[in-house]
Amino acid sequence: MDTHFIPQQAVVLLENGLQLPLGTDGRAYFNYYWLRDNCPSSFDSATRERSFDIFHLEQPPRAASADIVGDTLIISWADETHVSRYPLSMLAANTGGQQRADPADLPRKAWFSDHYPQIQRFSQPDLMQDRSLVAQWIKAMIVDGLTIVTDMPDSDQGLTDTVRLMGHVRPTFFGEYFDVKTHINPTNTAYTAKALELHTDTPAEEYAPGIQFLHCRANTVQGGLSIYSDGVAVANAFRTADPEGFRLLSEIDIPFYCEHDDYDMRSRQRVIELDQHGEVSGLTISQHMADVFDLPQDVLDSYYPAFCRFGRMLQDDRFLMRFMMKAGECMVFDNHRVVHGRLAYSATTGDRYLRGCYADRAEMRSTYRALVSEGRFRA
Ligand code: OGA
Ligand code: ZN
Questions:
Q1: Of the bound ligands, which one is closest to the alpha carbon of residue 218?
Q2: Hey, whose CA ends up nearest to atom 8 of ligand 1?
Q3: Which among 46, 153, 190, 279 could bridge 158 via Cys, Cβ 3.0 to 4.6 Å?
Q4: Which 3 state secondary structure label does DSSP give 121?
Q5: 3-92: which CATH topology?
Q6: What angle (nearest 5°) sits at the alpha carbon of residue 186, between those of residues 185 and 187?
Q7: What is the CATH number of domain 113-371?
Q8: pTM above 0.85?
Q9: How far is the CA of 371 from the centre of ligand 2 (A)?
């Protein structure tokens, strides 16, 4: 519709809002509170925040008059000496309660056991130089949930610098960083040379960290192959193969824990997480941190078989990648989507050292939006 030729009388003032000729059926309704709150003058261009305070209006907002002039709606407010001017394009973008377009809302692309050669790889020194490459890296993280950063400096600082390209190091109850090597008094299976079954990290946190970094500093041992599966690919296949099992795993919370001398973390999580569209968005799973299931025993009659079927499916040859991490590589992956683990290794045959930490998923998406979009007030 060409909004330039709308006659002035086209705006109809109603009790709680007004109607104007916009949108697919040529009649769009806007509530007066919404209009008053979102007057372009409500926003401060320096802070980019709303500076108007609707809680302190003396009377509910009501238009005294409203006209379309060119491509602008002009409202004079009753009970206030204020005039608002709205570009019709801004109103057209809000006719149907649409959510703001989000450049970081990219569809997930499932991957399978043959994905290892195609994992998107980014050289750390190149990322440090080039913000457009950082945008490509984050895009791959959103779509695939897994990337490899190569040519990492052999230093603690190298890992911190890499995380800082997308956000901040997100601490957990055990601190900001962790060192995966054999410990003398291990507090975690990861700190032994035993196999570490497929899992997501720190499920006992109320909000498990979103992005995981595992920086390989040394790996000369026999064994210790890395194993990874895409939770989205597996859960979607599980949904088709066992709809009832899928329902149980996506609706029932189970307890997780992590307990030692001076901490006792506990949470309840769903193994399969769905997003607002009902699509699989990820997983929370860990056998070594699953607490004793406290569901009614007759519910366990159906829950346990589904849980085991799904756990075996994660390890299925269709889905499981196996590979040897090399010193200088850093696995970066979505800890709510990708399950990871390792095979057992022989600690006496060489050195194995991974340094790990986390970042926040929402902060990563924020960095992506800032890199690829123009922002709200930039010309
Ligand atoms: C971990 C982990 C993987 C490895 O520490 O949580 O998954 O390869 N380690 O040791
Ligand atoms: Zn782990």
A1: 1
A2: 342
A3: 153
A4: strand
A5: NE0471 N-terminal domain-like (3.30.2020)
A6: 120
A7: 3.60.130.10
A8: yes
A9: 30
Contact between residue 354 and residue 325 where contact means Cβ atoms under 8 Å apart: yes
| 190 CB within 6 A, ligand 1 | yes
Q: Domain extents for the chain?
A: 3-92, 113-371
Q: Is 19 within 8 Å of 11 (Cβ atoms)?
A: yes
CB-based burial label for 7 (10 Å; 0-12, 13-18, 19+): exposed
